[in-house]
Each structure stands twice: as C-alpha cells, then as structure tokens.
C-alpha cells in the first residue's frame, strides 16, 4: 500500500482526516497566507489554524487564492480551527463561530477543536460545540490539550465523544497515558509540535538514523509519527521545509529504529495549564497580525 499526503484516517464519526497536514502556529496573516498557498502547491490537503493564532484571515485568503491556483475546491481540503479560550462558555462559543468562519471564508470547518480546557467553562463550551456540529458548521469536533482528568470530566457530560485530542507529541513528549486513554474511547491523537520545537533535530543518534535512510532528522521524526498512527501537523513558512516535511513516503523505518525514537520519551511538555493567565480568570483577546 502506498502512502502520500492524501492518506487519511477515519475518525469516530466517519469523517476522514489526512494523516499529515500543515500548521500555521506562530505565523502572522501574511506568513500564514503564503504557507497555505505553498502547501496547496505541494499537495497538502489539511491545514490547521486557531483564533488564538491571530491568522485565520490569512489562512482563509490563502485557501481561496491557493485552491484557485491549483484547480481544486474547498471540498478537496480539510480545515481545522479552534475555539479561543476568551470565547469559551456556551453562548460565547455560539457567538464566536460565525466570525471565525467569515475570516476563513467558508461556511464550515472540517474539524473544530476546543483549544484549551478553560477551568469552569470547557463543559459548557463543549455543549455549544456539539450544537455547532449539529448545525453543519463543523464536520467533526474535538479538543486540544486535554489531560485524562479533564477528558473524563468532559465525557461524563458530553453527548458526542470528541473525535480528536490535539496534543504536544514528539519523541520527547509521547503522552503515553493520554494516548492510551484516548484510544480506549476511540479518540485520535493529533500532534502539535511534532518536531519538538527543533529540540530533537540535533540528536546524534537520530542523525545516524537519518544518514542511513538518506533523510533529514526532521523527516525521520515525521515518519516515526506517521508509522505510529499519529495525525501530524508540522508547521513551516519556508517552501523548502514544507516540501521536505512531505517527503516521508518513500521509505519505512525499521522496528529497531522506531524503538529508538520511542526510547527517547521524557514526558516534558513545553506548555501546560499553569502557563496561562486564564487559570487565574483573565484571558487576553487574540490579535490579528499581518506583519506588513
């Protein structure tokens, strides 16, 4: 069986999601627009943004112009955005979604995630996300950055089981307890920061493995994610890197090399709940940035 950027995984509601896509975290609108257009040019079918990133408008423009340039339609791609922490709560979430869709220049997203489990609000937020799903404004719904305690609490109140939990996931942070819990409930893990913010790219043993396959360390790590069954969204605004990140389908890591990457696990997250002011009750508005 051959794999490429169109390879998909079926979520628990029957929606299929590309296993490999392009993220735009830490990109302003200008960068995000360009990255999306480059991604489409090089065959990417999944794009991941969030209101918190401040670049939904750039992603929307990139999709409109990029799809036209490659002769594809909105239905050919998979688009994800997220409910911003400052918009959480039942009515607040319902009020926010139409503005996000307008910025993205679409009337639906393929996946809508609750970006972070804001204390005291995420259950009501999920209730609104379920309504958004029933209204056809999202083809699948899920969460992001939910540990097992918060996920269990959500499941205790939900009528729809999340399809995805997007987590920081890479060789150094393998979220094994969360991955196992999610799998027990039919929830797919999706990796943000799959390259560990570059932390693994200078590892000498990974460099040896990369040399063996005539690949970069980044390609080895992304292939490990892919063979592990993880949905992956590496981010880049550079065309060469966007191309390289997609060039992982012409080789397969051996069981021994897969195990080497599994052995690197340290479970040290770069971000967690106490890093955010909303634990104390204050959330700043997302800022739109064009960088020009």
TrEMBL record:
The record marks 82 as: Lowers pKa of active site Tyr. Substrate binds at residue 115. Transmembrane segments: none annotated. Pfam families: Aldo_ket_red. Coiled coil: none annotated. Signal peptide: none annotated. CDD domains: AKR_AKR1-5-like. It comes from the Bacteria. The keyword NADP applies. The active site is at residue 53. Keywords: NADP, Oxidoreductase. One of its GO terms (molecular function) is oxidoreductase activity, acting on the CH-OH group of donors, NAD or NADP as acceptor. Residues 20-264 form the NADP-dependent oxidoreductase domain. Belongs to the aldo/keto reductase family. This is Oxidoreductase. The lineage of its organism: Bacteria, Bacillati, Bacillota, Bacilli, Lactobacillales.
